[in-house]
Amino acid sequence: MSGALPAVPGMNFDIFQQLLAVIGNARALYEQRNLVSNGTFGAGIANWNATDGVTVQPEGPTSVLVLSNWRDKAFQNLRLDPDRGYVLRVTARKEGAGKGTVTISDYAASPETLTFTSCDENTSGTFVTKTLEIFPDTDSIRIDIGETEGTFRVESVELICMKQMEDN
Prior knowledge:
By secondary structure, this protein is of the alpha+beta class. The chain has a single domain, classed as Sandwich (Jelly Rolls). It contains 2 helices and 10 strands, in the order αββββββββββα. A 5-stranded antiparallel sheet has the order 1-4-9-6-7, with no helix packed on it. The radius of gyration is 19 Å and the shape is globular.
C-alpha cells in the first residue's frame, strides 16, 4: 500500500489544516467556558462521581453518559462565584418509562431540577436541550444526574457564567 498516495499534499491540504486549527480552537474555547469538568464525557467518567452501573458510550461523533437503572447516579461538585448568575444547559434523551433528572443545588436554597421524559423527543432518538438559570447563595454547588426507570442518556452538561455569555 506504500506509495499508493502521492508524497505531495493535495490542493486542499492547507485549507484542511486551517479548518482543523479552527475546530481545535473552538473546542478549547468551549471547554474553557464550561465550568463542568468533562461535561461532554469525552474523557469517560473522569471528574464525575458515579455508581457502578453508570457508563459512557460512544454515540455518533460524541460520548454519552448512560444511566440504565434507578440506582444509577452521577454527580460533580463545583466551586464558583456566588455573586454571579449561571446557566445550566443539559442535552439528554430519556428512553422508556420514568424520568431522567439533572438537579443543581447550592446547599443553601432549594435545589432546581431539569426533568426529561420520553415525551420530550421531537422525533425518536433525538436529544433535547433544556436550560435553567441559577443564582447561587454559596460558592459551592452540586450537579446530580439520576433517573427513575428506563434509560437516561446525557450528551452534555454545561454550566456557564452569565457574565461570560454577555462578554462574548
